[in-house]
Amino acid sequence: LGDRRARMLARLSAIDGLECAAPEGAFYIFASVRGLIGRSTPQAKVLRTDTDVAEYLRETAGVVTIDGTSYGLSPFLRFSFATSMDEIEKGCDAIASSIALLDRESVGEAA
Q: Phi and psi dihedrals of 76, rounded to 5?
């Protein structure tokens, strides 16, 4: 799991709007999505919560994650790396592509 953890951590940390810290002994990474809150989707929906971000990634990237709100850890998302390296690469590519579609101009306008 060490190689997969390191790879997912590096890939997610390189995506604009996500911030990650290395997990200790877990098979998942909690990533802050604070940098995505307030951005708008191509459909003009403003992402106001980590739950909105999780839903957006599920719908656009096909990546299922768990919102931090469910753990009392908003605005974070939980990403599992208990999968193959190939799936990690595909998932991170899809996440990066989906986040690149968000409108940055609305950042800070979410209330």
A: -115, 160
Pairwise CA distance, residues 64 & 105, whole Å: 26
Q: Is 107 left (phi over 0), alpha (psi -120 to 50) or beta?
A: beta
Alpha-carbon gap, residue 108 to 39, rounded angstroms: 8
Q: Which tens digits make up the pLDDT trace of 5-42?
A: 999 999 999 999 999 988 887 899 999 999 999 999 99
What does the block give as tokens for 89? 């690469």
- Cis amide bond preceding 75, omega within 30: yes
**Residue 37 CB partners (closer than 8 Å, separation 6+):** 47, 48, 49, 50, 53, 75, 107, 110
pTM as predicted: 0.91
Question: Rounded to the nearest 5°, which phi and psi values hold at 17?
Answer: 100, -10
